[in-house]
Design goal:
264 residues; mainly alpha; 14 helices
Length: 264
Amino acid sequence: MRAEGAASFARVWADHRRGLPGWGAALAGITLMYLAFWPMMGADMQAMLDGLPEALIRALGYDRIGTAAGYLEAVIYGLLGPVLLLVYGIGLGGRVIAGQEEDGTLELDLAAPVGRARLYWQRLAAVWTLITALVAITTLAVLVSGPLFGLGVPTVNVLAASLAMWLLVGGFTTIALAVGAATGRRGIGVAAAAGLATLAYVFRSVADAVGVDVLATLSPFAWMLASEPLVNGFDAFGAAKLGLLSVVAAPLGAWRFARRDLMV
């Protein structure tokens, strides 16, 4: 890695590392707090949900909440973890190129002898590094919670679910960065990624509620959780589909960013 390329990576890291401890503490704290309820509720939670409509229970992912793996999926991997990480990642992805282009600070990096492609890929790598750190903190909190609260979910299955969540969040974050870099508009990048993520979540919820398989086929949230990684372990096919989000979006964004007029 050439020094000038590393400088762009380092700048993103330096600009955003101060917020990392706060986000990490929030994710770890929320994970520990919600998993601490498991010993008090456990199988009794299923009885509490018996009065709800069956379709609603499936839509919320609560149909297996009476088991430790089902509770962990419904609360952490199916809702809180992805939502909080997507808020962080999509905002970050929209900001590191398009946001700095809009406020004029991208000009400082472009004034150096660094090509657009190198700047783009280094910033994308920095964003993925920050996301990786937060997913790792969340995973560690889940692993610590296992023996503390008697979850009994195998470590390899937790790692499988975390890998899928990492690919999902990284994919939508890459879309935000790529669309923002392609258009020069942070708002467009954030809206595109957030809109697609919301649509994916709705598709999965509707598919679970009414059994519309075509919607599950189109939903990255279904690709992440349909194989029940907390029960069955790694799903190579689901991971490959999640990886395609980034594999397709990243080069398209780089291609367009290298060819358009910048607002600097």
